[in-house]
């Protein structure tokens, strides 16, 4: 097992400098910090002094990785996961990556140093090949986000179907100029929804117009920005499918402020079925995701893997999605129907 002396020898730095890097001391140059971290990774050095004694012990703590706690979907997932974990006698810690690959890898060291018994990834910022080595230290379960290369259990939703039913609903209302608004394009969730979006268009003999694609939209403010970008187009879309209720609310808010009518001038579909969908005027048509069931299943699985120590088995658990039709796409004709 590698020691701090091994790291010092490999880097040519003193033990004091190595210790400062481990303890995040501010007075260490970025060059030396990077050198030490690379050496620790190469040697497999575990800085946590309690890691050896904990190696065969349980902490009864799980880690949940999310990109942004202020996103209502992830807030609900956090609450549901904490409740499920408590039922199994586990505590939950939240690791907010803020879409940073570096932060995600740093948090994965919690598993490596045995500070947590398992990790639930609700988002993925790195390629699976960078995360896979951590399986030697404990179980990883994917929940919401997915990667077909990952040889671990995955709790997911049929996002292709979600994108399909949302878009088909708009097509059924007579719209042919439909914009698509999503978060990070690198996300498999976002890509799958876009696949469903295109599938619905193809059934109506329509092609996907890249001018109507708006990506990297996550917040209400992004929705306001996207609205103006759509209105600047020569051929404006008459409807938009967004991957977030927050973004949908931002679009609606800005449209109304600028004198546009919803849905007469612009129909809007969100995603998640968060509380905000029933607080806006008009209320928002959206796609419901069974967050509580997903969280419960993810916790059940990871607890089982902790007990059996079978970490590298690919298992897929898929939950259905449901379209909730509200006023943002059909005006006053119908409220709160399910499709």
From TrEMBL:
CDD domains: HTH_LacI (cd01392), PBP1_CcpB-like (cd06286)
UniProt xrefs under SMART domains: HTH_LACI
Molecular function via GO: DNA-binding transcription factor activity; transcription cis-regulatory region binding
Lineage, opening ranks: Bacteria, Bacillati, Bacillota, Bacilli, Bacillales
Keywords noted in UniProt: DNA-binding, Transcription, Transcription regulation
The UniProt record lists the keyword DNA-binding: yes
UniProt entry tagged with the keyword DNA-binding: yes
UniProt name for this protein: DNA-binding LacI/PurR family transcriptional regulator
Domain HTH lacI-type: 2-56
């Amino acid at each position: 097992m590698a020691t701090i002396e091994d790291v010092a020898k490999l880097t040519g730095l003193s033990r004091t400098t190595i210790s400062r890097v481990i303890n995040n001391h501010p007075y260490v140059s970025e060059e030396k910090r990077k050198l030490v971290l690379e050496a620790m990774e190469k040697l497999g050095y575990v800085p946590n002094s309690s890691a050896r004694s904990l190696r065969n012990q349980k902490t009864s703590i799980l880690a949940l990785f999310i990109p942004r706690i202020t996103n209502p979907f992830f807030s609900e997932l956090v609450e549901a996961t904490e409740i499920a974990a408590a039922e199994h006698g586990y505590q939950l810690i939240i690791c907010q990556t803020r879409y940073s690959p570096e932060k995600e890898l740093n948090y994965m060291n919690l598993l490596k140093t045995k500070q947590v018994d398992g990790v639930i990834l609700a988002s993925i910022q790195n390629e699976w090949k960078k995360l896979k080595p951590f399986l030697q230290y404990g179980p990883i379960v994917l929940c919401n986000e997915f990667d077909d290369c990952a040889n671990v259990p995955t709790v997911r939703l049929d996002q292709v179907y979600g994108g399909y039913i949302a878009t088909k609903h708009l097509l059924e209302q007579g719209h042919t100029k439909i914009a698509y608004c999503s978060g990070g394009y690198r996300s498999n969730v976002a890509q799958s929804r876009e696949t469903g979006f295109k599938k619905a268009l193809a059934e109506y003999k329509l092609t996907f117009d890249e001018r109507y694609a708006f990506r990297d939209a996550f917040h209400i403010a992004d929705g306001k920005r996207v609205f103006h970008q759509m209105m600047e187009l020569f051929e404006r879309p008459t409807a938009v499918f967004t991957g977030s209720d927050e973004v949908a609310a931002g679009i609606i808010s800005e449209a109304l402020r600028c004198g546009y009518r919803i849905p007469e001038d612009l129909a809007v579909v969100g995603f998640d079925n968060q509380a905000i969908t029933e607080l806006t005027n008009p209320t928002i048509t959206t796609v419901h995701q069974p967050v509580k069931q997903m969280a419960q299943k993810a916790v059940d699985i990871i607890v089982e893997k902790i007990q059996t120590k079978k970490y590298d088995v690919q298992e897929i658990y898929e939950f259905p999605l449901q379209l909730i039709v509200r006023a943002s796409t059909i005006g006053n004709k119908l409220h709160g129907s399910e499709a």
